[in-house]
Write a structure and sequence with these properties.
alpha+beta; nine-stranded mixed beta sheet; single chain; binds 2-OXO-4-methylpentanoic acid; D-amino Acid Aminotransferase, Chain A, domain 1; D-amino Acid Aminotransferase, Chain A, domain 2
Length: 354
Amino acid sequence: MAISIKITKTTQSRIHLCDFENIEFGKIFSDHMFRVDYMDGKWQNPEILPYGDISISPSLSALHYGQSIFEGMKAFKNPEGKPQLFRPMENIKRLNKSAVRMGMPEIPEELFYEGLKQLVSLDRNWIPTKDGSALYLRPFMFATDDFVGVRPSINYSFIIFCCPVNSYYPKPIKVKVEKKYVRASDGMAGYAKAAGNYGISMLPTMEAKKEGYDQIIWTDGRSHNHVEESGTTNLFFVINDELILTPKPDGNILEGITRDSCLQLLRKEGYKIEERNISISEIIEAAKNKQLTDAFGTGTAAIIAKIAAIGLDGTDYELPEAENRKVSNWLYNNIYQIQTGKIADPFSWVETID
Ligand code: COI
């Protein structure tokens, strides 16, 4: 069924206010946004309108009980100047998986996809082309009932807005192994991209920053003996530049799309990969013996975030210099060049928008 989206274009583009040479992540928003509302049991009135404030009631249920989920996606410009999306259906499916976990309605895939494509097409001039940059896309859904009783909302909104961005982490990061706080445990919502999963990371990350770290590594909720993910990325560890270790998605970590893309690239290149429970002690032993040749986080925003040092119980274990990282440098170049259409896309990950 054809989807009809009402389009109201801005009369005053703000693009001249954007300094494309010096973009700070998440601070500048493109001219338009896509919105569709869930009312009377169905998604209604999809529209693209000028980006701007939305009006909400103090009793908006998302604010009180956290029925709020989101995705992170990116659009790039290929060498012919056409916008392209990276594995958009994966994000669409993951948002709906998060929706189910949070008791929220799923959004029809074609409605999400059509809104996304039309929005990116309209704001294509906002896609930056400087090395490492992209147009970050933020789809999110939240409960909109004006009601303070605890029950699933009846009404919801789904919005996508865009911001031109550079790398999320401009330099390798120092991470602290978090052993006091827990992100997720069995039966919780660790696999969902739920706002609350990020909310609970704020205090531990603030504490880690006071100790000189950039990020935390979450450990499992039962024993604190196994690594799970960082506050913003999935995690990979490389032993002797040969063996790749990454935590197995067990319901408690986000099933990252960049993570999956890295695994497919590494498998194709012939790397030995182990997706399993990874103990902190084996990582620290490998770092002590100089066998931990690389470690990095993967995510849409960060793409590949190299880890400079891992802090455990007050001791920092340094990793090799960033420029000597065989695996993370190779992965970053391959993924980013596929995303920007500079090299062939053997997996058909990229979707071009005309
Ligand atoms: C992303 O990588 O897109 C995320 O959603 C992580 C967020 C912390 C920026």
